[in-house]
Amino acid sequence: MTKERDSALPRRTVLKGLGAGSALALAGGMPRYVQAQTSEPIRLGFQLHRTGIGAVYGRWYQRTTEAALKVLNEAGGINGRPVEIIFEDDGTDPKRGSEVFEKLAVQRKCDLVFGALFSHVVVGTAPRAAELRVPYLVCSEGHHVAAGLNRWTLQPGITDVRSQVISMAPWVSSNLGKKVTMIYPDYAFGFDHRDFFQEAMKAQGGEVIELIPVPPTETSFTRYLPRIPSETEVLYHVMVGPAVLTFVKELGEFYGTGAHPEIFGFIDSLEGISTESPGLEFLEGSHFWEGMPRYRQPDSTEFDAFYRKAVGVDDSGAAVGDPKDVSTYAHMFSCWETLFVIKKAMEAASYKGPDDRQAIVEAMEAMTTFADSREHPQGDKVFNGRTHQVFGHQFISKVVGGKLEVVQRTAIEDGFYPDAVDYTTMPF
Amino acid sequence: MTGGVRVWALHLAVLVALALAPLVVPPYHATNLARIMVLAVFAMGYNIAFGYTGLLSLGHALLLAAGMYATGLLVAHGGWTAGPALLAGALAGAGVAFVVGLLALRTTGAAFMIVTLMFAQAGYLTILYFGDLTRGDEGFTLAREARTLFGLDLVTDATRYSAALALFAAGLIGCLLLVRSRTGRVLVAVRENSERTRMLGYDPFRARLLALTLSGLYAGTAGAAYALLFGYVGASFATVQYSVLALLWVLLGGAGTVLGPLVGTLVMFYLVDFAGNLTDATLFVVGAALILLILFARTGLLGTLRARALAWLP
């Protein structure tokens, strides 16, 4: 008698269960719950620089992300669930950036947020990401993530500026010259170049013989150019914004047709601008860093071809059908690749809903390499889970006939540097 | 109900409504309200200078940044705790305003606008110049553990909201006391007719300097509070954009009304926010709204209300 009672379900429990089950079934609650677990869209937020100083980048970041989303959903989405992306303009402003993050994460109920490029927006937003415990994946190239922000902020789609700079130095030292003069913006972005490139050149037996910081409000550079020492072998320039056109023109007037140092710059200053633009003739024969080659190269991969076609970019890096609409090709791949890292992390974490957000971060921290593929058309990469920073190949291109021809592809290891943080030991 | 009771009842009712808001609005709007209250303190400071004293400044971003950087740098590099750092931020705003006022108040009208704009630009460039300390345009974050005030964790939403409300309430009551005081009436007199005020035996320069210093106290406190409550200190807050924003918030809400800065900050915030849900061209919507305001409510929302129905509104 006792045994029978133990093995059977108590009558009251059975009745309760039947009642509750019937109620759920009648209300449609059970099927909807099951449905939500299986096919409700995953919703991702995108912090977009649609307006403000980052607008040129923002336009192409959105196009690239929408193209990647189409590819992703056509291949079955994430864990079999379709993916939606909500774009919200942050005005390239850190205060609004933080507000937009809040809106995407809390009001629009996005599972995570990605996409920010400008460093001040990233730094201004990161504290709120940690407070809300929502993964924040930045496409910024700033050194801030690896320098130490918080455990919820990661940069899995693009190498940071420190890595870019130190992987350039050996080639510059061996091929262009050992005595370098640097002209750079007199604020944080320029300081990263100043500090890390000096250090890297010293390690190569070269030296930076003159530093010429230029205030960001400067519109003419003529008074800075006479400070370039005559023994300079390499002129290293990093300029941002429209001032680069004036800078190049005035540099050309300064040197005229006479001898001048080799010129090496970062393509950041010419993103969205054709290298064949009138006024940029003086750049002929000079070299640029590129995160991904704007002009399709003879040895470009099939993955690059697939990516160009999907985003709508021609072989010269401009929008298909509109040669004047030049893309931000050296950076925008980061959005594409970040989206596919998100897919990989969510699938590894068997992501079901916001309760699994921490598992996304942990899944990313466990990642080590990304193979050259359609998901990573810029090339293979190494991800450092401790510092939340990805490392990849860098490209040095020469301006030949107004076009950029790749002359060097660095090894991933060239960009490695000692870890400054270990996020995996920090609490969430 | 007498005028005084009515005025106090209205303002206390606003504070009670703000205190109850987190219980009824979704969390997203509660955090927004915390931001809006901090920024409204900045706008209230601007209102003391512009709305009540007639000082059209384009340099208030400098005062906001003075408070923000004083607090941020002392916490991040000096190891100060939040309480003393907040006080230092408030005093930095007042101190910078006092020094700027000593020089800039020798001018009036358009010249005052230009001089204050130049001071603010110099402040912005100074932040960039000392980039090794300030991290320039990129800015820096404050460690989570440093954001504790009198044992309260400012990182949690409820505490943050309460701290923002306490700050806003102090600012609102302070402003109300000021404008209803003899000093407040002198400020308005200076705004309306400086020479006549001088003839009556008051010193307009001293009155303006006092208004600007109090304005700086509000702006500096708001900057310091923003740093502690939201954990970020950045040079963008020192740009002319934030001087113009303060002006717009005050104009929209109603210059020379105590509640105008709150209303202006709130409406502008949600105008941008809602416009973002409707269109990509958010700035177009904001611009159109401001044009409508100029056409149909030149004295701002509360200014118009005061002119048409509530003459007792301070």
TrEMBL record, chain A:
Keyword annotations: Amino-acid transport, Signal, Transport
PROSITE patterns, per the entry: TAT
Domain Leucine-binding protein: start-end pairs: 41-400
GO biological process: amino acid transport
Family: Belongs to the leucine-binding protein family.
Protein name: Branched-chain amino acid transport system substrate-binding protein
Species, as recorded: Amaricoccus macauensis
From TrEMBL, chain B:
One Gene Ontology CC term in the entry: plasma membrane
Localisation per UniProt entry: Cell membrane
Membrane topology classification: Multi-pass membrane protein
InterPro entries for this protein: ABC_transp_permease, LivM-like
UniProt entry keywords in alphabetical sequence: Cell membrane, Membrane, Transmembrane, Transmembrane helix
GO molecular function: branched-chain amino acid transmembrane transporter activity
Protein's UniProt keywords contain Iron: no
Transmembrane segments: 7-28, 34-55, 62-80, 86-105, 112-131, 161-179, 209-234, 246-271, 283-305
UniProt xrefs under Pfam families: BPD_transp_2 (PF02653)
Broad class of where this protein is predominantly found: membrane
Keyword Transmembrane helix in annotation: yes
Protein name: Branched-chain amino acid transport system permease protein
Species per Swiss-Prot/TrEMBL record: Amaricoccus macauensis
